[in-house]
User: What shape does this take?
Amino acid sequence: MNNDIIVAMFGYKFNKHYFEFNQKDGELEYRDMNSTIRIIDYGDSLYHKTICPDSCATEYRILYYKDSLTVALTLARFYDMYVGPINRYDRRGNLIGTKNTDAPFNYSKDDVVNWVKEKYDVDLYKKPKWALMSRSPTPFPHYMLRFLDKNGTPIVYSIDARDGSLIFQNIDGVKTKFKDDSIWYPKKKEKKKGVPTRHRK
Assistant: This one.
């Protein structure tokens, strides 16, 4: 599912009456469409809704303006990562900005999930026990992930998101480095030395 489908399923307009009638201390949690829905009022200018489908590692978030009750922002998280577009809207529902969080990662999170599924028959989309995945664009795009295989063996990988090559693995405590640690510390560009000039007397 993408953000547009989630908004269509769970509301273009915020139901303020339902929230205020059922909330406790600014929070409300309930079940709908095989998902857990959490709504929180942090005291800012927005209502924050999080949709967590059952047995799924992806959660979807919809932020609503408190004054117009319309959608202000949509985004998705897969484990500890923002994934896909983060879309911003004005109070009339017009898209006013978007950020593609996947842009720095040539080797996508779907590539990672499919590789784990093919190699270990573990489905990271379903958020199995102990599984976790994160990524960062610095100092270069890379993933960190962990999971248990079918025998309960703990497995940890670091993967280069530029091409999908392995950086590091730890399988049941046996560590293997595939790339030198120097990749984490890129060389600083040396400043070009200028040609000294003579000062006329």
